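Working notes for the structural subgroup meeting. M.R. asked for a predicted model of this chain before we commit to crystallization trials. I am recording the input and output together here so anyone reviewing the notebook later can reproduce the run.

Input as submitted:
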Amino acid sequence: MSRGLSLRERIVLSYVLFAALISTIFAAGVYATFDALEDQFVEDTVRAELDEVIGVHRHSQDYSGLVSSHMRIYVSDTPSWDERPPAFRDLAEGVTELMIDDREYHVEVRHVDGRTYVMAFDETDIEQRQSTLGWVLLAGVLVCTFVGAWAGFAMSRQVIEPVSRLSEDVAALVRGGGVLETDSYADDEVGELARSFQLYQQRIHEFLVREREFTGNVSHELRTPLTSIRSAVEVALADPAVDGVQRERLLRMLRATMEMAQLIEIFLLLARAEEDAYSGLEKVPADVLSAVLQDLQPLAEQRGARLALRFSGEAGTRLNMGAFGIVARNLVQNAIVHGGGQVEVSLDADTLRVWNDGPPMSEEALKRAFERHYRGAASKEGAGLGLAIARRLADRFGWSLELDSDAQGTLAILRLRGGRRLDEGVA
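Returned structure, recorded in token form:
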């Protein structure tokens, strides 16, 4: 997802656009007004001078073609008529704008009493002043835009400061816990947001406390009867008089008891507070993994699967062994139940790999394998929770869990690097 403009950037941009818009409208208005006044001034001046020349010429033939330094008059029955520039000779009656030798002329032609009068006004200087005014106004627009940007930065710093402080306080809560203090916030929109967030945080905290207490109490209450059931089943299995059918039933009871005990361990782990989940851990992954495979050996024998365990460069990293054991058990048990006749488990310094030679998984199954209650088309066992629980625990402890499948089999990869270590405490 692409990053949009921050709140500060949007405030500055608003100020810049507003200053640029207002100054541009003002400059355009000034320039258009000057241009209209200039055109009106030249037109009125030429018309007035031409009226005066016509009136004088009716009563006197003493006439000079030069009216002023910027105006000349040409009359058809005077010597000045032949001095007309070629561009003035074929003009129709009325007003015409002409450009001659980089100079701009306003020319008016009028027929009166059988004579033709041509009044030419050199407006080059006025046009140059208008051009200078345009550049000045453009510079003014740029200056106003710059001032708007400066004002935007100054104002955004003041407006964003409480929002930034709230963001930092919330980030501090994520890193270290605690409760958001709202006393330092003003009685405005940001303060109201902070107080709403504090109330929401308190409600979530109370909900989590109730959830942990309920889950922990239920899990503890279920441990004792499950332990009794498992002990009774194991004693019954040790009796030589138990025949094959009875032994199969007892094995199913034992597996169900072990699965229930595993779920209880998951509930207890998830019910712990963050700081409790990272204390008192002494075992290393190799020890836990060996115990997991030993517990699952009867299931593998029943399924006709061969378990192979290999360690390479195991560094004895201290992790949350409860979570690691649950994830490892789910992955290995899933490989035994849904795989073929061979399950290979390997552990190196930071990666656990569980491979089975079962049939390949479809692309849809790979995408949805970690969804709760999802079971593949060929799967008829389980509730579809094992991989979902494994992924949830992996995410909680910063591990990476992936699945890959091809014609050779299916591989589950649990990467421990980057996860939370015992000596790092709670992030």
